[in-house]
Each structure stands twice: as C-alpha cells, then as structure tokens.
Amino acid sequence: MTPELVPLLILCALVTYLARAVPFFLDWMKRLPRGIRRFLSIIPIAALGALIFPGVFMEFTFFPPLGLIGIAAAAAAAWFAGGLIIPIGGSILVVYLTLLLFF
Amino acid sequence: MAKNSSSFLSGLQLGIPIFIGYFPAAVAFGLVARSAGLLFGDTVVFSMTTFAGASQFFAVNLLRSGALILEIALGVFLVNLRHVLFSASLYQKLSNPGRAQKAFIAFGNTDEVFSVASTREGKVTPAFMAGLEIPAWSGWVIGSAAGFLVGTVLPEDLQISVGITLYAMFTSLLIQEVKRSFRYLGIAALSGLINTVAVLILSIAPGWAFIISIAAAGGIGALILPEEDISGQEITEGHTYDS
To answer: Global pTM?
Structure first.
C-alpha cells in the first residue's frame, strides 16, 4: 500500500458509505422536499457530462481527437447494441486499430 | 427460515449476472489504477472498501491530475449523492431489517444492485439482498485485481488504448439515459461544457470544477426539465409525486 493514499481511501470509503447508509437510519429522508429530489435525480446525468469532458481530450496527449473517436465508437455501439461490454470493447478496439494504422 | 434461505438463493441467482457485468468494468478499473501509479494493494483495498465504480474511476483520474485529497473526496461524495435516493427507496422495500442488516445492505447498494432489487415485486428480505450483493462485490474486487495484474503483461499500444475505457463506459451509460429522453443529452452537454471551460480556460482545479459543473447543470435541469423526465428518474415510492 502507498502510505500517502491511505487518507484518500478512507475518505472515499466513508463518503460513499455515508450516502448509502444514512437514509436507512434517518426516517425523514424518505420524504425529501420535491426540489431536492428533482436535483438529486438529475445529478447522475449531469455527472456523466463532466466525467467525460474535458478528460477525454486529455487522455491521448499526443493526439487529443483520438479520445473523441473512441467515445463516438462507444456511443454508436451503445445506441445500436446496448449494454456496456460491446461499447467498451468496441471502443478500445477502434482506438487500438487507429493507433496501429496511423501512429 | 426456509423462506429466508430460499431468498438468499434467489438473490444469488440475480447476483451472478451482476458479477458478470461488473467484472470487465472492474478489469478496466484495475488497468486505469495501475497506469495512474496505484499499487496492487491500493487498487484492491480501494475496490473492497469504497465499492463504487464511477467514483473510483473519478478519484483515480483526479489523483493523476494532481488534485487535493479533499477535492477528490468531495467530488466522490457528489457523484454518490444519488445513492441517498436509492437507499431511501430500498429501505422502504425491505421487510423488517435489523440495525446490523441495514448497515450491511447499505454498503452494497450500488446502482445495479438497486435497480435489480427495486424492480422485484413486493418486499425483499435482507437475505435476498445479501445474495445479491455478495457476488456483486466479489465481481468488483476480483475484477480490479485481475485488471491490475493483466496490465503488467499487455503490449504498450493496447495499454494506451485501454485509456479510453473510462470514457467509453460513461458514454455508454449516458446513451442509455438519452434513449429515455433526448433532453438528458442537453444536461450532460451543459455540464461537460461548463467543466471544460472551467478546467481548460479558467484553470479551476479539476475537483472543484467538477462540483461546480454538476451542481450548475443539475440545478438547471431540476428547474427546467419537464415532469415526465424527472418522474422517469423517480425511484422512491413517492408521496410527493402522486398528484
């Protein structure tokens, strides 16, 4: 284990567990105000956008558009085939082939 | 008692597919963690204790970009806030859980576990939940270890290509949502745009930029999205949503 990472691992475990466990022990959480519930239900979608951008441009520093090629492949596979395995596998394959052919 | 043990088995039957689904994603996490400089022990302990895919990918990525621990933890907390809703909903679906059972079940209440449990008819027992969560957790932990080890033998071009895994996964998850409503694409694009401007142009630290982006896009979404988009997301047996 890396000693400097121990506080991070503990904090991540703790905040994840808190979000999952607190509602089991606080009954009023069953009836959160409507505005807050709307907000919480949108968060996963908003998070996806920020998780993808701008990170995807910074992944392949030697040729940033390669990231866009990869997620375009994933999006197409997810749209037509669905699931996670085919889009992820297909995306890796497209990026790998692009690397082999052009770099 | 007989009912409970059969419930554990019926949970297990549904938990195995989650194991199979988690495994490749966990392999990807192991690869990404290794390339970010985590050790084998760090990677496995992370998966064992946090057990949250998107958050772990996010944390490792931020770590690689040099973010502070506090920023990362706050970001992870935000990514996980949705679980407050999942747990509030699952709690109502559980038949008579004890305190220790609640504490255990809460730990494994991931998106996939929740979606399987919440689509069951009627109440679910703590034993059923254990049957569901144990394989899910095992798949995530074993896959993370496998991914880390595989990373040491992959050819270099392939290791570089695997860097797309995380974004391919997020994109696939987003497309699944967009199939339900095209407006979600707008919300995700908005938060992606805010985050891009914040990080690349304003040079705001990635952890804070992430928090600002999802708070802003989430807030705007909550204000402007029509009710049907939100109710599609609505997962608690809502009293407030009946009308």
So the answer is: 0.75
Chain A CB contacts of B85 below 8 Å: 23, 37, 40-41
Last residue of a domain, one of B178, B213, B234: B178
Residues B66 and A83: their CA atoms lie apart, in Å, by: 32
- Number of domains within chain B: 2
Cβ-in-10-Å burial (0-12, 13-18, 19+) of B31 comes to: buried
The range of the structural domain enclosing residue B112 comes to: 2-178
Binning pLDDT at 50, 70 and 90, where does residue B236 land?
Answer: very low
Residue where a domain terminates, one of B153, B178, B203: B178
User: Could you tell me if B117 and B187 lie in one domain?
Assistant: no
Report B:166-205 residues touching A (Cβ under 8 A).
Answer: 166-177, 179, 184, 187-196, 199-200
Instruction: Give yes or no for residue A12 having a pLDDT over 80.
Output: yes
3-state secondary structure of A83: coil
